[in-house]
């Protein structure tokens, strides 16, 4: 069998096995809001937001936190890489995804941010105001 035909059949088979949406393979559906201990791996600054790559168990996620006008010197706790914090998280997408080399559009308070999919999902949290962290109550 010709190599092109084999590849064609593999593509057809893969598309039947996985639900592909926006170039991300959707996986399991999960709870909406969860209290998690997350390790901060990387903090990236975008125009109007911070993208915070975090590790939970053996999976990566991205927290999106809009920038604010709060002086970081006035924060009780400023988020730092290499530390673990407890967050009340809400998943932006209903299902976790297998990351692919794309950016997905996330809208928070009418601000649009394009988030590179380095992790399985995007989290939002009430525990961050910019990079100012407050413990969950």
Entry keywords:
single chain, mainly beta, OB fold (Dihydrolipoamide Acetyltransferase, E2P), five-stranded mixed β-barrel, three-stranded antiparallel β-sheet, 11% helix, globular
Question: How would you portray this structure in words?
Answer:
It contains 1 helix and 13 strands; from the N terminus they run αβββββββββββββ. By secondary structure, the chain is mostly beta strands. The protein has a single domain, classed as OB fold (Dihydrolipoamide Acetyltransferase, E2P) (Beta Barrel), CATH 2.40.50. 20% of the residues are buried.
CATH class bucket:
Mainly Beta
Oligomer: single chain
**Global shape:** globular
CATH topology: OB fold (Dihydrolipoamide Acetyltransferase, E2P)
The number of helices is 1
Summarize the structure.
This protein is mostly beta strands.
How is the topology of this model organized?
Elements: H1 3-17, E1 20-21, E2 24-29, E3 33-45, E4 49-56, E5 59-66, E6 77-78, E7 84-91, E8 95-98, E9 103-108, E10 111-116, E11 122-124, E12 128-129, E13 132-133
Parallel strand pairs: 5-11
Antiparallel strand pairs: 1-2, 2-8, 3-4, 3-7, 4-5, 6-13, 7-11, 9-10, 12-13
């Amino acid at each position: 069998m010709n190599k092109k035909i084999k590849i064609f059949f593999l593509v057809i088979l893969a598309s039947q096995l996985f639900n592909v949406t926006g170039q991300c393979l959707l996986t399991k559906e999960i709870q909406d809001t969860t209290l998690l201990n997350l390790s901060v791996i990387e903090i990236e600054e975008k125009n109007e937001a911070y993208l915070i790559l975090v590790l939970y168990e053996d999976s990566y996620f991205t927290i999106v936190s809009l920038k604010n006008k709060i002086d970081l010197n006035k924060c009780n706790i400023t988020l730092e890489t290499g530390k673990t914090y407890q967050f009340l998280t809400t998943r932006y997408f209903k299902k976790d995804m297998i990351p692919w080399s794309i950016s997905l559009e996330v809208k928070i308070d009418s601000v649009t941010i394009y988030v590179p999919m380095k992790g399985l999902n995007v989290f939002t949290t009430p525990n961050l105001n910019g990079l100012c962290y407050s413990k969950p109550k």
